[in-house]
From TrEMBL:
This is Class I SAM-dependent methyltransferase. GO terms for molecular function: S-adenosylmethionine-dependent methyltransferase activity. Gene3D superfamilies: Vaccinia Virus protein VP39. InterPro entries: Methyltransf_11, SAM-dependent_MTases_sf. It comes from Pseudomaricurvus hydrocarbonicus.
Length: 269
C-alpha cells in the first residue's frame, strides 16, 4: 500500500463521482435539502462536499438569486467538483475551520461526511456558527454496518484478503450508526432540540465487479489506501461468491442502504 498522490486522488474522485454518486449518494440529496428547508434565494453551505452532488442539487433549488458553496479537505474531490460545476464556490477547508463569517448561511448540509471529521463536536459547532438564527442544519450519516447488508460482507472479504487497514477504510462510513450516541453528540455541540429520522435507501450497482471496483479504485484511495493491481484482481474474483446473494435477476447488485437524517435549528438571539 502507498499514500495517494494528487493524480491518485483525482482518479479516485472521478471513480467516486461516476460510480458511488449514482449508486448511493444522489438519491439522498432531495431528502437532505428538504430537511434543511432549502428554497429559492437561500444561501447554502455543503460541508464535506466531495465531488459536489448535493451542492449541484442545491444550486438548482436556490436559483440565480441564491448562493451555494462547498468545502472539502480533498483537492482531488474539489478538482472534479469544479469541473462539473464551475459556478459554485468550492474551497479547500476542513469542517472544523469553516472559512466563512458568523451567520453567513440560511442552511448548512453535510451529506455522509460527519463520520470522517477529526473533531466532530468542533465541526458541528462550526456549522452552527455560520448559520443565521433560525437557519437549518441537516446532516446525513449511514446506519450501522450490519444493517447495510452487502457492505458488511465486503468488509469481511477485504479484511481476509487485504488486511485490517483496507477493511477499516470501508467500515469508516458506518461508525455513527448509533442513534442515541448521535443525538448526544449534537446536543453536546449546542444543537438542541435535535431530530433524527432513519430512512432506508437502495444501493444499486450494475454488478458485483462494478460495486467492488468502485470501492477498491474509488473509495479506498480517497481514504489513503491504494492497493496493487494483483491484489485488486484477487479481491474482485472472490467477490463474485462473497456477494452473490445480493445479485438480482437482472444481474444488478441491490441491497438496503439505511441512513439517519439529523436536523437542528440555529438558536435565535
Amino acid at each position: 500500500m502507498q499514500a495517494p498522490n494528487l493524480d491518485d486522488q483525482i482518479a479516485g474522485a472521478r471513480a467516486y463521482e461516476n460510480l458511488h454518486v449514482p449508486a448511493l449518494f444522489k438519491q439522498w440529496c432531495p431528502t437532505l435539502l428538504d430537511a434543511a428547508d432549502v428554497r429559492a434565494g437561500n444561501r447554502v453551505l455543503d460541508v464535506a462536499c466531495g465531488t459536489g452532488v448535493l451542492a449541484r442539487e442545491a444550486a438548482v433549488r436556490v436559483g440565480s438569486h441564491g448562493f451555494v458553496a462547498g468545502v472539502d479537505p480533498g483537492p482531488g474531490m474539489l478538482a472534479v467538483a469544479s469541473e462539473l460545476a464551475p459556478d459554485i464556490e468550492w474551497t479547500e477547508a476542513t469542517a472544523e475551520s469553516l472559512p466563512y463569517p458568523d451567520r453567513s448561511f440560511d442552511a448548512v448540509c453535510c451529506q455522509f461526511g460527519l463520520m470522517f471529521f477529526s473533531d466532530r463536536s468542533l465541526a458541528l459547532k462550526e456549522m452552527l456558527r455560520v448559520l443565521r438564527p433560525g437557519g437549518k442544519l441537516a446532516v446525513a450519516v449511514w446506519d450501522r454496518l450490519e444493517n447495510s447488508e452487502a457492505y458488511a460482507a465486503e468488509v469481511v472479504l477485504l479484511e481476509r484478503l487485504a488486511g485490517v487497514t483496507a477493511a477499516n477504510a470501508l467500515r469508516a462510513p458506518f461508525v455513527l450508526g448509533d442513534k442515541h450516541a448521535l443525538a448526544n453528540m449534537f446536543k453536546a455541540a449546542g444543537i438542541d432540540p435535535v431530530t433524527i429520522e432513519t430512512r432506508t435507501g437502495t444501493a444499486r450497482f450494475p454488478g458485483i465487479k462494478v460495486m467492488v471496483e468502485a470501492d477498491l479504485r474509488g473509495w479506498l484511495p480517497v481514504m489513503g489506501v491504494v492497493l496493487n493491481e494483483e491484489l485488486i484482481q484477487k479481491i474482485l474474483a472472490q467477490a463474485e461468491s462473497a456477494l452473490g446473494e445480493y445479485v438480482s435477476a437482472q444481474g444488478e447488485v441491490v441491497f438496503n442502504s439505511p441512513a439517519h437524517i439529523v436536523t437542528g435549528v440555529a438558536p435565535a438571539d
